[in-house]
Write a structure and sequence with these properties.
The complex is a heterodimer. Chain A is mostly helical. Helix content of chain A is 73%, strand content 1%. Helices cover 51% and strands 2% of the residues of chain B. Chain B contains three helices and two strands. A two-stranded antiparallel sheet of chain B has the order 1-2. In chain B, helix 1 (78-120) runs antiparallel to helix 3. The chains are: A mainly alpha, B mainly alpha. The interface between A and B is large, with 48 and 58 residues.
Chain lengths: 326, 193
């Protein structure tokens, strides 16, 4: 028995709407041409690029002669680990991402890729990524990589829907990549590594808290536990506090032999500026001040890292190439 | 915003499928008849005859989730059927949750705005069609209250969602392996004969 397609309508306008809606249906067929773009979005390629840059900064700031092979392995390994973590994060969050404006065009939400493929891709990134870091660089860096993937996917992601503590966990996730860069170069977790991690950790707060201020409606509706919704005053206080901490950490950099004393001096203007915007956000608590703080954080971090690199403490006792005169 | 009652419209069976010539069975939309809260427009979408894939639609007006129209192959194995039914059921479950959630949110938001505006200026009357809203800072109290009110609901949902997501992915893996095994067996038969 044949069942025909019946559009049970009497209204011609309804028919018009029908065909318009029907045109928006897409066949869930994966084409090889689209795959690179889809995987790039699945792995949050821009965020991955940022993570890899912070790792590179950590590597470059470490007090070791710059070794290209090690550097390339570190950046590749970290990049792959980041792709894996981001893919799993999206795999977990499909219905939530669908309901937020910022995330509703992600590949899994749009059905451009199946969950199985997303998980397989994540595994295909995580395994070589961690292997590269562990055996190509050193086990410490590999361990940090695994730990960070775990922290992001199994702690931060589910915690977003349970407690505001997720923001602090997320800040640690952001702090680990530069530490990995450092340990890749030096093989050890010393004070410089913690300083860099500390700087990235502190930066996360003005960055994220300011961003979250404009997303309160989506968070509330979607069931995300964020400070901006549950503890707004704390949200702004924490952002300001960590802006000021950046000033302090920049001053600690020369004390820990990471940079020269020039660094905290030349970094002071941008650190004071972000602290000022942090203060305005704290006081005004409005969308305008939150947006200003957020956008400032976007250029503040790369600039701060560049300044650090330019003021890197030269290796102690070296007088350039060649042996010291006897 | 008037809440739509599902009523008869959702009972329109998923008719628009001409599966003739492919020998495919009809997949009835199960469970939508007895939904008493979540409205969902049953789409009258029909996939083209030649297609052997699932089809995904635009985001639903209420739940923001994209409905999937599942393809049923001629020789669907029991495992494939189990997977498809799990996906179908999860889709309906998700649809109900989010449509409910979003409708409740908008309804309570309107009520909050109404009561605040009333309190602010008893003389002011929001005319119908005029969008009198409070700014984000005034809405903050509502957002906080709504989030904490729905916390337990979200905890249950999260747990179920994670379980379902893992189950679906696991079954997808099983089906994929199964298909590979079948193809290899076919190849072996061909090479041996």
């Amino acid at each position: 028995m044949e069942l025909e397609c019946t559009a049970v309508t009497e209204d011609s306008m309804a028919v018009g709407k029908e065909t318009k809606e029907e045109k928006q249906w897409k066949e869930m067929k994966l084409s090889v041409d689209d795959l690179p773009g889809i995987l790039a979005r699945l792995s949050k390629i821009k965020l991955t690029a940022l993570v890899v840059s912070t790792t590179s900064a950590g590597f470059a700031l470490a007090p070791e002669p710059f070794a290209w092979p090690c550097f390339l392995l570190t950046t590749l390994g970290t990049g792959l680990a980041s792709c894996a973590a981001n893919s799993i994060n999206q795999f977990f969050e499909v219905p939530f991402d669908s309901n937020m404006n910022r995330t509703k065009n992600r590949p899994l939400v749009r059905g451009q890729i199946s969950p199985l493929l997303a998980v397989s891709f994540a595994a295909c990134c995580a395994v070589p990524g961690v292997a590269l870091l562990t055996w190509g660089v050193n086990p410490l860096t590999g361990a940090l990589g695994v730990f960070n993937i775990f922290l992001y996917t199994c702690c931060y992601t589910p915690l977003k829907r349970v407690s505001i503590a997720n923001t602090w966990v997320g800040a640690v996730v952001g702090a680990i990549p530069p530490v990995m860069g450092w340990t890749a170069a030096t093989g050890s977790l010393d004070a410089g590594a913690f300083l860099l991690g500390g700087i990235l950790y502190c930066w996360q707060f003005p960055h994220f808290n300011a961003l979250s201020w404009g997303l309160r409606e989506d968070y509330s509706r979607g069931g995300y536990c964020m400070m901006s919704v549950t503890h707004p005053a704390l949200c702004r206080r924490v952002a300001l506090r960590h802006c000021l901490a950046l000033v302090a950490l920049s001053a600690a950099a020369p004390a820990l032999d990471v940079t020269t004393w020039t660094f905290p001096v030349i970094a002071l203007p941008i650190n004071l500026y972000i602290s000022y915007l942090g203060f305005r956000f704290y006081r005004d608590a409005d969308r305008k001040s939150s947006r200003k703080l957020f956008f400032c954080s976007l250029w503040h971090l790369p600039l701060l890292l560049l300044l650090m690199l330019s003021c890197k403490r030269p290796p102690a006792g070296s007088s350039g190439a060649g042996e010291p005169p006897s | 915003m008037a809440a739509l009652r599902p009523g008869r419209k959702t009972l329109l069976p998923v008719l628009c499928r001409t599966f003739t010539g492919r020998g495919c069975q009809l997949a009835p939309e199960r469970g939508t008849e007895r939904r008493d809260v979540a409205p969902s427009r049953i789409s009258r979408f029909c996939p083209p005859r030649k297609s052997c894939h699932d089809w995904i639609g635009p985001p639903d007006k209420y739940s923001n989730l994209r409905p999937v129209h599942f393809y049923i192959p001629e020789n669907e194995s029991p495992l494939e059927q189990k997977l498809r039914e799990l996906r179908q059921e999860t889709q309906e479950w998700n649809q109900q949750f989010w449509a409910n959630q979003n409708l409740t949110f908008h309804k309570e938001k309107e009520e909050f705005i109404h009561s605040r505006l009333k309190a602010k200026g008893p003389g002011l009357r929001a005319e119908s069609g005029q969008k009198a809203t409070l700014n984000a800072e005034e809405m903050a109290d509502f957002y906080k209250e709504f989030l904490s009110k729905n916390f337990r609901k979200h905890m249950c949902y999260n747990r179920d969602w994670y379980r379902r997501n893992f189950a679906i992915t696991f079954f997808m893996g099983k089906v994929a392996l199964d298909r590979i095994r079948k193809k290899l067996r076919l190849k072996q038969k061909k090479t041996s004969s």
